[in-house]
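Below is how a single chain appears once it has passed through the pipeline. First comes the sequence as given, then the structure the pipeline wrote out for it. We keep one example in the README because the format questions we get most often are answered faster by looking than by reading.
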Amino acid sequence: MVTTRLRVIYGDTDQMGVVYYANYLRYFEASRNEYLRARGLRYRDFEERFGLALPVAEAGVSYKQPARYDDLLDVEASVVDVRRASATFEYRVLRGGELIATGRTVHACVDLDGRLRRLPPELVEKLTRGAAAPDSPAP
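Resulting structure:
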């Protein structure tokens, strides 16, 4: 698990001052990127080195409590499943230790023409074991 700390900006909220529901997917993306970075792999480098991409094939969010402008959120990301050509991440969003949302994204591994490809063994190793200790800060 890797934890990413984010502060809710005004532009992330709706007229009621609550974080717009789709912005949680952006928070997941930020946390997922930091997860990869903490394991020694930048997403941009992955694309360039392997000529592959990891688009979201499936996404879901369960909302428990609303987040609001200026809240400080901790977004936890973990890889829970790695298959031949996909990886599944799960997320927990906390405010002051209180769980406010959970989520899940499934990512297909595709080439630059959009054809399904096997995940490179190096990526599988980094996703499942990682080069960094859990909860270590991103470099």
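The longest strand covers residues 72-82.

See the next section for the split statistics.
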